[in-house]
Amino acid sequence: MNDYKPLDLTIIGAGMIVHDLILPAAYQLQRQGYVKNIAVCGTRVSSLQALKDNTLIKEAFPGQEFTPFPALDSPAGDNQELYKEALAKMAPYQAVIVALPDQLHYEVMMNVLDFDQHVLCVKPLVLKHKHGVEIAQKAKARGLYVGVEYHKRFDRRSLIARKNYLNGDLGKFVIGEAKLIEPYYYRYSNFQNWFTTEFTDPFVYVGCHYVDLVYFITGLKPVEVSVSGVKGKFPNGNEAFMWANGRVRFENGALLSVTDGLGYPDDGAGSNEQGLSMFFEGNEKGAIFKHNDQFRGAEYSFIKGRGPANKLFHYINPDFFQLVPWEGEGYKPIGYGPDSVMANIKCICQIEARADKDLQNAHSVRLEAGDEADRKGLLATPENSYINELVHEAARLSILNDGVMALIEYEPEPQVRLKHA
């Protein structure tokens, strides 16, 4: 018997991340036999049609299709709850990916679990720690796996850094800085409708990757967070924090500065600007690692513009996601982005294969298999990434109070409060 069970997959969301990462990863899983039928749920027919018509995906995966919810010939209407119809058509213990704006995750995740489906959610899982606890408890009660798509855990740089730190080769982490500036053209996307001051900010949206990464590498818990923001307006007039700078203190006293924004120049050579530097001390010596993630070592100048910004000159990123020739038909996705998505779905397929071998004890088998993945700590789960929800909560408390320091307290129960409140 195979060590995995092929499963149906439903993707809830049809936005940019589904185009750029999730659907290509799902199609590759389908090629490999891990995934059977694929459905995609969107709130707008136009979004689903754009996904169907995506030229790069069609070239890479000839003949592969997904079932859209709603159907492409459906009249315009309110499709916010239609994903439940797609879930109702699934057998239990299949796979679901939630790829929606951050503030929608909690409600949708709880509903997905009601249908007895394993689920992978794009980061952040939720914006409040108590909601993450509720999701974890509900999943355990039903024998379901919940993954969180912190794909930087699968970057080879991160894996090397984690190994070196855990082996004691770097010493004690003392100070670091991270940066992730996303493209300016994001301001003209659907971000206009949800990336507002009320709900999120650049630190929570992308800075969370690096806070999780430092925790992933070192195991150190954050205890203080201060975030200040710079506001601006989207073309549709909605107000947002376009830039943010955060400072995170960890339990050993170390500090991490994180700068984020929606403002990398569309005329710039890179797809964004990002990187992480960490400094260490030990054995009367200093140590450092520095990840210059914006360069990637590949430069191209084309004869016609490419990508959303229609650039001629590019720093091509070969590490996060690319579609490349392979021994099969079309192209295959490579990079730590698809590696992360595919590893989570493969884990679900393996859990179900084990459950099938012992149907009488399927619930306990599922729990045991999920606990194994959680303990290993490579795949992000609510249990091994819960510090992120506390950081998000503290960051929002801080940025909405002009950068006042917020404390994260773990005992007797995890909570967040302003330092001088």
Structure commentary:
The protein is α/β, with parallel strands linked by helices and 421 residues long. The chain has 2 domains: 7-152 and 326-383, NAD(P)-binding Rossmann-like Domain (Rossmann fold, 3-Layer(aba) Sandwich), CATH 3.40.50.720; 156-319 and 389-399, Dihydrodipicolinate Reductase, domain 2, CATH 3.30.360. It has 12 helices and 18 strands.
Secondary structure: elements and pairs:
Blueprint: E1 7-12, H1 16-32, E2 35-41, H2 45-52, H3 55-60, E3 67-69, H4 83-88, E4 95-98, H5 105-114, E5 118-122, H6 129-142, E6 146-149, H7 156-166, E7 172-183, H8 191-194, H9 202-218, E8 222-233, E9 239-250, E10 255-264, E11 273-282, E12 285-291, E13 299-306, E14 311-315, E15 322-325, E16 331-334, H10 336-357, H11 362-376, H12 387-399, E17 406-409, E18 415-418
Parallel strand pairs: 1-2, 1-4, 2-3, 4-5, 5-6, 7-10
Antiparallel strand pairs: 7-11, 8-9, 8-17, 9-10, 11-12, 13-14, 15-16, 17-18
* Approximate helicity band: 25-40%
CATH topology descriptor of the largest domain: Rossmann fold
Unreliable spans are none
Number of strands: 18
Give helix and strand order, one letter per element, not per position: EHEHHEHEHEHEHEHHEEEEEEEEEHHHEE
The best one-word shape is globular
Instruction: Characterize the biggest β-sheet.
Output: 8 strands, mixed
Task: Please describe the structure with a list of short key phrases separated by commas or semicolons.
12 helices, Rossmann fold, single chain, Dihydrodipicolinate Reductase, domain 2, alpha/beta, 2 domains, 6-stranded parallel beta sheet, 8-stranded mixed beta sheet, globular, 421 residues
